[in-house]
Design a protein that fits this description.
three-stranded antiparallel β-sheet, eight-stranded mixed β-sheet, 209 residues, alpha+beta, 11 strands
Amino acid sequence: MNFKKITNTLSGRTPTILGHEQFMKFAVLLPLVEIENEVHILFEVRALTLRRQPGEVCFPGGKIEKGEDPQKAAIRETSEELGIKESDITDVFPLDFMVSAFGTIIYPFAGKITDTEKIAPNVAEVGEVFMVPLSFFKKNQPDSYKINFQVEPEDGFPFDLIIGGENYNWQTRTMHEYFYRHNEKVIWGLTARVLTHFIELLDNHKQNE
């Protein structure tokens, strides 16, 4: 292969995330509702019968189906979980997507649910829903705790091929976990990370006005 063929291959290419084909992809929606002229954020409590994370607080969302647009997936999952029409979800805007260390890409969105009276949660997935005023999160910072990830090479790892061998100075990773407490509900994990990012976007925009 000559240089011209290489440049033709790379010319006009739009970069993406390396190895994204092997990543699981999910979309979630941060639902905004208006109650008595005040904006609230809607949360779900996962059904206790679910295999993964039963009873935890989350946003509506799920796996992006093959060929599906992330925003479409977020709207579809929200519609299915809350028992509302897709047309009841408006003003949907993308937030920053996240690449996790566990082989997943999360595409969060924020959007408005136009009529809370229409909500009829799917009991197979949702134990309950509750709303928290947006003002609560703007006034209350989350608690933050560190999680440290350690590198553990598998048996048979070729230490003889790297400088330092078994004493190689691996870079460890630290991740912050956020916790919000509202009444008896605890909001943490991915949901808290998306929520914190959303509040920071609002605060940064206000400062730049």
